Amino acid sequence: MPKFVRPNPPLPMSVSIATRVFGSEPIAALIRYYASNSSRTMNEAANSLEVPRQMVNRHTKLLLDAGVLVIDQEGSGPQPATYRVDPERVDMLLNELRTYLQRRDAASS
């Protein structure tokens, strides 16, 4: 029996993004951290969550690519970038996932 069954038809893009973003405890903790502590660096997140910086770096990049995090202030020289959560993007992805799971027509985005 296969370990992973691909959905047929394929998931809408927004649902696929939502499953990657919300399907992991460390990523959920990171979203919660950035949502509760606006304008924080990756080092601050790693220290606060007591997880390796490499993990925070990898997950922060995923969240940036998904539009869940935005750069609040670009890093320059010794100053690292700071990040914050885009609550509208989080709401949109959660709604798309909810719609898909409840078998209503999920919009492909």
Automatic annotation (TrEMBL):
A GO MF annotation of the entry reads:
DNA binding
Keyword DNA-binding on this protein?
yes
Arranged from A to Z, the UniProt key words for this protein are:
DNA-binding
Gene3D superfamilies per the record? Winged helix-like DNA-binding domain superfamily/Winged helix DNA-binding domain (1.10.10.10)
In terms of domain of life, where is this protein from? Bacteria
* Record's protein name: DNA-binding transcriptional ArsR family regulator
According to its UniProt entry, this protein's organism is Nocardioides albus
